[in-house]
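Subject: mismatched residue count in predicted assembly?

I count 1461 residues in my input, but I want to confirm that the predicted structure covers every chain. Input:
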Amino acid sequence: MRDLAGRLGYLVLAATAVAYLAVYATGLGRLPTAFDYLSILNTTLPLVFVAIGQSLVVLTGGIDLSVGGTVSLCVAVTAVAVTGFEQLPLVLAIGTACGVVNGLIVAAGRIAPILATLATLPIFTGAALWVLPVPGGSIPPQIRAVLTNPDLPTGLIWLGLAVAGWLVLRRTRFGMRVYAIGSDAGAARAVGVPVERVTFGVYALSGLCCALAAVFYVSTTTAGDANAGAPFILTSIAAVVVGGVAFTGGRGSAVGAVAGAAALALVIDVLFFAGIDPLYQALFQGLFLVVAVMLGSLAMLLRRAT
Amino acid sequence: MNLHRLASAAVILLLAAACGQAPQSTAGNTPAPDRKLKIALSNSFIGNQWRVEMENVFKAACAMPPYLAQVECSIYNAGNDVSTQSRQIANLISQGVDGIVINAASTSGLNGVVQQACDRGIVVVSFDNTVDAACGLTVNTDQIAFGKQLAQFIVDQLGGKGNVVMVTGVAGTGADNDRNKGAKEVFAANPGITVVATYSGMWDSATAQRATSAQLPALPQVDGVWVSGGTDGVIKAFGAAKRPMPVFGGEAENGFRKYMAGILTPKVTGMSIGQPPYLSVISLELARAVIKKEHPRESITIPFPVVTSESLKPGETVFPDLPDSFFADFTDSGPDAALILCQEAATDGTPCPGKTLTVNLGTS
Amino acid sequence: MTSTAPVPTLHTFAVRATGVDRAFGGVRALRDASFSARPGEIHALAGENGAGKSTLIKVLCGLVAPDRGRVEVNGRVATAFQELSLLPDLTVAENLLLADPPRGRLGLVRRGRLAPEARRILERFGVDHIDSRAVCADLPVSHRQVVELVRVLATEPRVVFLDEPTAALPDRQVEWLAGHMRRLRDEGCCVIFTSHRWREIERLADRVTVMRNGTHVATREKLAEAEAVTLMSGRTLGAMYPEIPPPATAGPALSFSDPGGISFDLRPGEILGVGGLAGQGQRELFLTLFGAGRPARVTVDGRPIRIRRPKDAIRAGLGIAYVPEDRKAEGLFLPLSVRDNITLATLGRRSAAGFVRRGAERAEVAGIVSRLGIAGGGAAAGTLSGGNQQKVVMARWLLADARVLLLFDVTRGVDAATKHDLYRLVAELARAGKAILYYSSETEEIAHLCHRVLVLREGRVAAELPGPVRDAERIVAAAIADGEAHA
Amino acid sequence: MRRVLYAFGAAGGVLLLGTILHPGFASWPSLQAMLVVASFTGFVAAGQMLVVLVGGIDLSIPWVLNGAAIMLTTTALGQPGRLPYALLVALAVGAAAGLANGLGVAWLGVPAVVMTLGMNGVLQGLSLGLSKGLTCATCGSYAPEPLRGLFPLGALLVWAGVALLVTVVLTLTTFGRRVYAVGVNPRAAYLAGVGVRGVTVALYTLSGVFAALAGVMLVGYGGQPSLGLGDPYLFESIAAVVVGGVSILGGRGHYAGVVAGALTLVAVTTFLQAQRVPEYGRLMIYGLVILVILLAYGRTRAHD
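Triage response: the counts match. Full output below for your records.
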């Protein structure tokens, strides 16, 4: 049953995918085409990356509300400053720097993560507005062709790399320590895990993931917007919980969060093809979130009962 | 329980379905003349009155001749989330619609998917918060002129001398920036005018009221107020603080116009310019006309309806029975009107009884 | 207290602490404590609960910085903590190999190798009945304790601290542990352990250091139990326990009958001891009776009553009270005032229309505080000493007029003087007609304080001894009789 | 208690700075205006604080507030006679939403973040769907006159009433004692016979009621609801609660501090606007102020 809770993300994704196929087929009388899959892939990628970063933080028992600001800032910088591949490291460095600031406040300042990142959220958002006061900017087509090519599934490569990156991370000592801290920070410290350093690293990685998400965002939309990050705050948290990562830390995986992100994207399509009155859409999205997580809680309860 | 395998199987099924399907060209460029056109409205956020009216008039227009017979309409909201809106537009492409009318969550955020729609021969018309993508058509008012005209009105009323407050909109959006830019140009050109405060009302009456209330006590005498949106809130704040009413230049909220018309007291002197909600209907007509090849493939800029305290007409440009937050310019007026709509179209989205809608796209 | 002896090149000590002070909040856990242990010896650290053993270990292994004083360590240190330091959501293998996981090329952890490698370690220590892929939270406590010990022993340290390593171990595993301790000692390692079982200290230790009240009392090679107890408590063995009055002859205050194998009557004024090795179902029994475990059926004054949650137990027409061993986790609200802590369970009785009647409350609190001699009445509960904290929890239930007291290891972590107070209090409560169910991890206490002792094994009553038993060995004997068959 | 003083100190500091740079910044009319604006945050934060006191969080505030505001106007139809009934309906909407949150969190074990986030969506869908986007032309969606007449002084009295009520409930009643006990140590509270789930459900319900009250007051202030009415209050309520010295881990904090927190936030915003700091600078300074206060509290944590 522990396994069921851990695999919640895959199950929800599978169920949503089946529902998607069903409503699509009944609505249009055919199955989705390559175009549909490609556009799902490309529009989901930014959330996938933010969700990976968020899941790392949640695995240590924290939460990162500042992802909204970090994504906004990196989107702004990407749209304004990136003229070729050589500037991409700059964006990644800025995202990581945002994460480093969070990491310092959380690990060294010993401020609760939700508060630390609540405070840095407006700071990063303000910086984004400063960089890009009006939506605009651009991204060089050669970058777009490689990242989110509208005609070729290049996004699959990056999705694969992201998942592979996670699997590699999971196989480092750092990865093991992330779980150790989330499971019981006090005990982890007692067995010699450098809790502060790992916590710091996790927030830095979350910042890096936000930067990656921002680059993909600009690549799909071809321009920047300083308010772009705001929706990612709550959707990334939703993706993480739907993906079966426990809020108490220590349980779940970033791949689950990726599945959760994909499921959330598919829900939009399910609602679309099911012809739900647009005014009621939020209702179903809210229910989806609560029910998905309730299934997870139920699985845990059953496990405890056995 | 092998749920994991089950899940994998479902995903594989999904992918298999992807490979099994040959990519299909979706929409033909010229539909058969007898077929109903499919035109969809993709709106970003339904969270304010203007957007609701905009959808309502769209809905009403679709239920009125000639659209009733010619067009099959659908409406989608994306909750101000760019990726949701992009998903919806992608799904519209899959559905094979003929035209998409967009009010965007981000002027830049939909460029990618709009380009894809264009590539498939779909006519894309964006309005209000328009899309940058070059292939798409736009229907809009001139936002810089909006800012300028309101500012000029204030300057003229004050005789070129006095203290002015600017209440701006949602920072980081194109419309806010353009309006502010226009206004600042005019104020800067008049050395007698001092801008004593600039703050954001978020295009929301309640927010504008709160921000103004908090500001006012620290402000010197204010002679004119330029408001990007939420004007009635600003007036209420002045009233609550018992400050003399300055000259207002603002949006087309019914509440503002009620003050201007003296329906609410105190009567204020002002100019009200609207971003008309019927932009959605004009966009619908443009899309229809372009698809039917009745109109060149061109963007249009429509003049915005302007009223002053003197020119207001109850029942036409100000509505005593409707809420303050209502946008009073849901219909155009006058002999050269782009279109005439009835009240219930805006309030309930129901068609105006026994009326055929004629939309004048102008000569452009 | 020679503070700066030059460090010899050939170390005569493996660890050494000199003049160490350490306080937590207002409580001084260590005061001018000194300690030294040599390589190649098994060194027992003895002392009552609250004497500072655990804190000293934490200071010696570097987990807690001393406020003052000096700590020297030679060689790699590994520590098994009293409160287990296993990570509950990780597997046994991950826990064992967290510090040094098997790595392949690129330095990546070979996750496939984790379980087999861990299994090899478990085999090496002869405990391969534990599944290395199991998640620790799912294991029984004794297995977790074994995993914790294996984790420590497998690192081949030069200095090993084992804090109460046998507390949750069945006897056979104690033998197993003893074997490994001796092996390490013979390999030149310094093994330091604490235990509350004198038998183990006598059998295993080459030297014993006794601590009391956070400071060093004596270090000896041979130490008889009687003398040790005197050293640890500062008083002689016999004087520790008060006379217990005979129980009332009235009918039972409470009858409990569990199809699982435990049933008993508890009479007013009776102190019924629950003995046995640690983790044999004592805690579950107490929680069940209090409604915090499985739903329970009890008979009170001939009436059957169902207890499904603590509220039921507290009401139930009889007032059952539970005083837990882990005050901080289960009993107290540390940042709240002593008053708030004491009156929480009885707020309803001192309120009018939902408002607390503060006058009545003040008077009652003042009464109970002075009756129990709780020091620091107005302060936050967190600033009190362990003994006073325990009294605060007792006070809560005395105010509630509880007729049945479930006292679960209430003397854990309490200094000798307070312990003595608590014994007197227990006797006094019995005299006042309270029915008391008593468990302690120190079997001595049960042997001396109880009218009757139920010895539990694997959740069932293995024996019932009439009390006072006086000789703790008899309880232990009853607890382990034919126990080997199960282990 | 020290944190409450810090919070008031912060508010006073900002007002002082404002007065130095802008004479009249802390004059009574100015103060009164700021107090009114702060009161909205204060209402919402009262509920948020109660939930935070037991280690929870309420993210459903924006649409509970909106839903209640819409219910009020569509029920009252602008007629003073219907006001009491409409008030009851609006607050009941808040209570129902809060109750559902509480039941989900306490009985079904759904994490508070998820439960309340989902509830926000559910309420958004229901509010928009059932009110058809609020465009009920016949109902003249106005707050009845008596409610509008509350401003400014009446509203401040309502806030003072709420402050008094919350403070009295938390410090003088048995319920308040139980709240702190649950917040500090839920397990021990359960073992002391406190109905932990009941307390939790009650607090979430109250949070819903306070969010609804904020909606009612905002409608009275602006005269009518707008759909984005609740959006600013989500993060602002959390910020007011933590600036007010309430521990996010639960069990510690006083409403007096939250009042100071709400005032501080409004004073900072007003001051920055008066300084004509551009939007991006305002956001950054706002964040920095919260951060500095948090760090100041962080330093004192070891002592209390």
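Chain D touches chain C through 22 residues (CB under 8 Å). Marking this ticket as 'not a bug'.
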